[in-house]
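Dear Dr. H.,

I hope your travels went smoothly. While you were away I took the liberty of generating a structure for the chain from your last submission, since the lab meeting agenda had it listed for discussion. I wanted you to have the full record in hand beforehand rather than looking at slides cold. The sequence, exactly as received, is reproduced here:
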Amino acid sequence: MSGAPVLNETDTPAAAGAQSRFIAPRLALGSCLRGFVVRCTAGRALRPDERLNHLPATPACAITWFFHGTAEWAHERVPAPRISFCGPRTKPATSFNPGPVETLTMLVMPDALQALTGFDAPGHADRACGDATTLFGPAWQPMLQAVLDAPGWDERIGLIEDFLEPRWRALKPGAWGSARTYRDWVEGLTVRALTAGVGRSARQTHRRIRAWAGLPLGTLSGLARAERALIDAHTEQALGRLRWGDVAAAAGYADQPHLCREARRIAGLSPRQLLRRINNDESFWIYRLWL
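The corresponding predicted structure, in token form, is as follows:
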């Protein structure tokens, strides 16, 4: 059993019965995993527009187990493998579930996955999802299949964490920053890049970050700012005092137009549009898990 706490859950009126949860990893894996995402729409006849999944740009890699149903990328109409791998994304994407689904997604940071496996996770940035059973080595195969066969969420997450924890501890990741938020992770990544190897120039630091994460520091910092702004905006809206200029300044943007530009790049919408869709549109369920 993972013992991981549920940080957030959404069961909105727009799609009552659709279960979406974000589950934090155990403490020992907090610098490796961002967390786990559970999605189950069994027993709910969603409209076609509610079976869309609008996904933001993200530095995290994703391994997704499809226990029931499948997903298709909006531009492909090719079913995803039962155990799928996706690398980091620099732009938003949309997938579609033809029918009910039951899925578990592990969000793992690209530098951690590379350290654990030697797999070139950064090299898969912005690529179509691949079959994890062919991308990962023999040591991973029993775990990947065991999770697919396990009967419940706790058992599934426990199998993953029990597999990863001794391997992660063996790497002695004391210098790795927390992955609880993207800002924490980017700050930790930058510190490691500054102190690793020979040479600490800005160019060398940026090269290390790009090699470990697959994305440049500017892009990673933008994703971290956007996450902070979205969380702050949702909180301020709930308190009835939302001012976008204040949100932009607190998150580190030069001004409100800067926030608007980055929001469109990461989510494809302006901040106002995005917040409205998060509040009212089931297909933006993934965003609600971070709020």
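Two observations you may find useful: Confidence is low (pLDDT under 50) at residues 1-15. Residues 217-238 form the longest helix (22 residues).

With kind regards,
E. W.
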